[in-house]
Amino acid sequence: MKAEDILTREIYRINSHLPARRLTLEELLESPEPGIRLRDGSWHSFRRSELEKISSLLDPGDERKLRLPLVLEIVSEIRGYFRVRGRVEVKVMDKILGFYDPLEEPEERLYPRYLLTRVRRELPTTTTYAFMTE
User: Fold this and answer.
1) pLDDT along the chain (134 residues), means of 10
2) Whole domain around residue 72: which residue ranges?
3) Number of domains composing the chain
4) What is the pTM of this model?
5) Cβ partners under 8 Å of residue 33, min gap 6
6) Where is 56: in which H helix or E strand?
7) Quick one: CA torsion of 72, 107, 19, 127, rounded to 10 degrees?
8) Closest among 88, 128, 132, 133 to 107, alpha carbons compared
């Protein structure tokens, strides 16, 4: 077995807490008990107050586009930063962190890692980490 194969397997193992399938904010708000199944088979519940907080940050129609949980990518090659991908996902993150600029809505953004604790404190059930290699 090659070192690359071993690394790939290990990354998959440490990411077993990720969702098997992410749901839209709209679907989660309509659910009586909002939650998702994780790759390891366990169930993860979302706090309704967090879902409503996120909904209040969005433009009409964005509830159908935003998939949760927001994935905070820890990329080994990008030291000191984490990445968020998706136009609506970046918009939510920018608004939570106070960086939002309506004239700039990128598809992905890097944020300094020291902001992770602030993000997780604000959105503990609607964010998750993903460990990545590139």
Assistant:
1) 72 78 97 95 96 97 97 89 96 96 93 96 96 77
2) 3-132
3) 1
4) 0.87
5) 45
6) helix 48-57
7) 40
8) 88
